[in-house]
Amino acid sequence: MTARTKPRLNFWQIWNMCFGFFGIQIGWGLQNANVSRIFQSLGAAIDEIPILWIAAPLTGLLVQPIVGYLSDHTWNRLGRRRPFFFGGAILATTALFIMPNSSFLWMAAVMLWIMDASINVTMEPFRAFVGDMLPDSQRTRGFAMQSFFIGTGAVIASAMPWMMANWFGVSNIAETGSIPDSVRYSFYLGGGAYFVSVMWTVISTREYSPEELEEFDVARAQTLKIDMDSGSGERSPKQFATTGGAWLLVGLLLTTLIVTLDLEKELYLLGIGFSVFGLLQFLAARFKKSHKTGNGFLEIMEDLFAMPRAMKQLAVVQFFSWFALFAMWIYTTAAVTSFHYSTSDTSTALYNEGADWVGVLFALYNGFAALTAFALPVLARRTSKKITHMISLWFGGFALISFFLIRDPSMLWVPMFGIGIAWASILSMPYAILSASLPAKKMGVFMGIFNFFITIPQIMAATILGLIVKYLFDGQAIFALVLGGVSLFVAGLMTLLVEDPTEG
Question: What is the dihedral of CA 435, 439, 445, 448, to 10 degrees?
């Protein structure tokens, strides 16, 4: 008997299942456009901002694979992924209300951790959700729909402080050590929108049961002639111990070098990161040797080393893509205010005018992303998903470099078009390629592991970008954007090496 294939969904069904991303991106948009501003307002120096931002990628690194694993193994009356949508929405909404009331720099840094963790709890299952609900022929459209809502949500979020100041007369200037009311009220409004939009998806969408998904997987394997268990595998205790020892040795040597040469404290994060990953592998070896295999930690560790080939290739693309994005999010405010407005004094009207303009620019690139989101699947059908992604990344690379070439701040809206194209593609094409390689029973955990290659480059950026800007670029933040542009060009080239199982 032929296995049942996954049915196609209509436009409004896809709309409803993706609508929650509208609220998620309002949260992300407020964070990306305003957290550096909040840090500076509370007294952070330019070279301190990247390490303060480390909360975001570290939280994603820890939370997303765990949430992915748990959502793969959850089934109750709310469904498989929706319980995490619901819980994450409550936590994120609360965090968005508290964040703009931070009185001290350390408080803002802690709230960034909490806010980012909450958003990740909601967001990670949404990626797997598209893979669960849509057949291969509709997944590019599904991820494009998510890109559309991400774009529209971010437009509103990024422009909120500017609209508060210019449309409603809310003050965008605060005393030194305080956060402007325009930012504070924006976070309140964003928190409410986050909760409502995510709840819409929870209420309006029915999920397939694990049994139905397994049946659909059998049909996919027959149609595509692929082995849906190819991403599964087991490692021996010796394999874990060997690779764990290598990682631990590198971490200890790096840490020793940093101490001996009295290097910058930010670099300790790299040494600690290598060492911790080595120790985790030793722990996995111990579990394996003692036959304690029935736990999520060991499964996640084994899946990490058993990634499908396409996932490994996409990891390289993601590394260079997200390094560039993190550079943009961290340094655009500092770059525009110092290079185009010639001020770094956060208490001046000129600085806040520049910071508000950055919010508008972020809104514009997200708006362009929303407008181009549905054009990308069309281009992908006529060429390929890989070619589409490469072209999009190169648009973004040239756009970031042009920040240095354009001297008139009023013209900075022009490169936002290229950044918007790149952003729309980054949010859709890698996931459309990846989901075709993943079995339904592991969609969540592999999507969570895939997030490693989003968070690791962000951690690298947070660790070294401050040092690069301080010592190599003489404190000029504009060159961090140029470096991000070069990184996107490299990511585009790496895309050509990716194998897409749905393209012959």
Answer: -10
Q: Are residues 187 and 179 in contact, defined by beta-carbon separation less than 8 angstroms?
A: no
Q: Are the CB atoms for 177 and 43 separated by under 8 Å?
A: yes
Q: What is the DSSP string of 446-467?
A: HHHHHTHHHHHHHHHHHHHHHH
354-396, pLDDT tens digit by residue?
888 887 888 888 888 888 888 888 898 898 899 999 999 999 9
* Model confidence pLDDT, tens digit, residues 214-270: 888 776 666 655 555 554 557 889 999 999 999 999 999 999 988 888 777 767 878
The one-character DSSP state at 79 is B
Q: Which residues contact 93 (CB under 8 A, 6 or more apart)?
A: 191, 192, 194, 195
The helix/strand/coil state of 258 is: helix
Structure tokens at 322: 């997200």
- Is 52 in contact with 39 (CB distance < 8 Å)? yes
Q: What pTM does this model have? A: 0.79
Whether the CB-CB separation of 370 and 151 falls below 8 Å is answered with: yes
Residue 318: which residues within 8 A CB-CB, separation 6 or more?
A: 430, 450, 453, 454, 457, 491
Phi, psi values for residue 326, rounded to 5°: -65, -40
Token match 């022929």: residue?
137
